[in-house]
Amino acid sequence: MERAREHDSTGGPDQPARRPGETGTALELLVHGVGGTTPQEMLNDPRTVRITGDDIAAVFRRADDVDAERSPDDRRRDGPVPEAYVWCNLTSGNGTRALWLLLLPFMVVNLAHWMRPSARGHRRTVRLYGLLVRLTGLTLTVLLVAAACEVALDLAAWQCAGTRACADRHSWLGFLSPTVSDGGWWNSPGRRLALASFVPTALTVLLWYLSRRTWSDYESQQPPTRDPEPDEDGGGSTALGRPGFWYGRRLVARLRAAHTAAGLVTVAAAVAGAAARHDREPGGPAVLNILGLLLEAALAACAVAVVWVVCRRGRSERRIDRELDERFVRRLPLAALVLLALALLYAGWERPGWESAGRLPGDATFGGLAAVQGLLVIVLAGVAYALHRTDPDRRAVLRGLGGPAVAMLACALGGVMSGGVSQRVSDWLDGTGTSIDGPPVLLTWQASVIPPLIVVLLVLFGWLAHRAWQLARAEREAVARDYPDEAQDRARTRRIAYTRAMASLTDRGPRIVAVTSGVTLLLGAGALVGALTTDETPGEAAQGTYPVVHGAAETAQALGSWLIGLGFILFVTWGRRAYKDAAARRTIGILWDVGTFWPRAAHPFAPPCYAERAVPDLTWRIATWTRVTGGRLVISGHSQGSVLAAAAAWQLAPSTRKRVALLTYGSPLERLYGRWFPAHFGPAALGSLHREVDCWRNLYRLTDPIGGPVRLPGNHDLGVDHVPLQDPLSYGRNDMHPLPAPILGHSDYQADPAFAEERRKLLARLRPDLPAPRHTAEQPCPGPEAEPQSNSGRSSA
């Protein structure tokens, strides 16, 4: 059942209020966290009504509360009317979400764009940071398409179809083989490459289609428009408050055109490069040689145009930019498609005596991509460190180097995925291991460094386990202090202490990322040097050395190949399961909930940003409801929902923002977002949010691995953070809890009496008509001095 009618709402969300009468209604707008939930669970009622929205994201109420603003029943005013905003289908909807696994490296590099350190007055350096990340994202697109070319063009069409022993084992390649087909029309190497090029071309078209479809569903959502107020500074201390922040339609369209053209140019270069190299040999046809040179020059010019489009200015956030760069969005991919067609025609021309032998020319592509990616990451690290020094933030991860570290992991992830596919296809085609040369040497070297990397990770996880054991021992005394009147149970105490210790390990995540990224960079550089200097696999290069070295190289090479194969099989299996199983799809959706909060500013093929739909939804709902009813509103956000709530609050007009209160619980606003994204959720941004909303309270537990305190800078007489909530609520059995109370961790914050008490205080502070004076003696913002329960007062490290 749906209720689409709003309460006499007309015009925009921030036009002058038109109130039919002061009702005094209080509203609690609930926003769920990662993983999603149902409106029935959020509202604790099986009978719910959709007030506004669609099947993707909507606002729900209990059936009895649909007309709460109009009801004359004064008893409704004793407590807030709960209203649930459900957005989980934005990330875990239908089965096509399983295809997003293919886009994982693109999502990770897009995160690196938003991890830049905070800086003021250094626009050129900030733009250089964004430019470097966009170029890194472009190399990932080329790497993925090049891997598809390696599989289809080199391994299948060039090597296997050109080798009788391999073609005999795979009858489906027989019509391409010069020997099996008895001189058929397709036996020419150029025609085989032209036919096989449809595989990477189809992959590029698929990426374009996914990006185009999600772009029309997400980036094309119109945000609310309004006139700036006199006291508004155009975004304040964070860019999340700027009018055009959640409307990246123009940039994504431009980048999509550039990346699509880059993929098509990569395929054209792979096809035409082999034919052009043959034509340049002594005795080759002069006309075809000239045509090949002209075609390669045109491909180079198109590649330069692609890089130029990517290097252009990034996002327009200070205004809602509804324009599109039609010349680039349409003409650039079309030009690349025409060049691809010319390359196929050129390669398919008859060339008597041309035979395929060895690997397809162009193996240096993977080496060049690896070198460029490493150089970009190193320069990005220098730029990030320079930005961090201009405005140091002691809570920022890795001293501002979180973005470069994550960009390095994105490159490594792309390399593993592309190399894994090549290795598995090569093993499948070459059953004996002797009929074809296999993938480029660099991919074998990259596979061989995976076992040493796993050893490093095992050492790190061993250190984490030891650290957790130490923390658990230290927490036992703290648990005893938090429950002083309870008879101590050693097993119960150990369990609570262990849960707290495991939750605190989240704060050690930056060390894991730093070590993994650094080791990956060093091992990748070693693999690149080894491949270029020896042009042999690690096992072949180690022949003649010490037996221990040769054995280690052979073991690493074999084990790395199997590990890549296992990872590829698990990847495909997980994707297939997610396509059929809604529960598995929701698990993947949790990953997207965290990774796709940010707009696609660095890579257009990344999974879409759900916040570009969710944040305007919340902004519209909050602004229109407060304007029409004049009631009191508390935004109640759990986990990732608290991040959406904060983003929506920043988007409100200052006059509206002062009319609402914010209640967050299990919130990663500072613990994760503030540390990893300091430019947008740093101390200055969170401090401004505290000053600009009417009041803000934050609840957290020491057993919560995600949520934590906000830790606002400066001296705040009436702070945001509640003391840590007790978890479990009861240590042992008593009259209120005759059965053992569970350790709740990150879930079910509403079960704690402090939740209802803090909500009551926030509503008491708000006024039905005008916002109350801030921090007055009559209606103070709830502070530590007024807490209903005691605790040790410790905060998670």
TrEMBL record:
Family annotation (InterPro entries): AB_hydrolase_fold (IPR029058)
Entry's transmembrane regions: 128-148, 193-210, 257-276, 288-311, 332-349, 369-388, 400-422, 442-464, 512-532, 556-575
Record-linked SUPFAM superfamilies: alpha/beta-Hydrolases
Keyword Ribosomal protein: no
Top-level taxon in the UniProt lineage: Bacteria
Keywords (A to Z) from UniProt: Membrane, Transmembrane, Transmembrane helix
Bias-annotated ranges (Polar residues): 788-797
Renumbered residue ranges of the record's region Disordered: 1-26, 218-239, 764-797
Protein's UniProt name: Integral membrane protein
Annotated source species: Streptomyces azureus
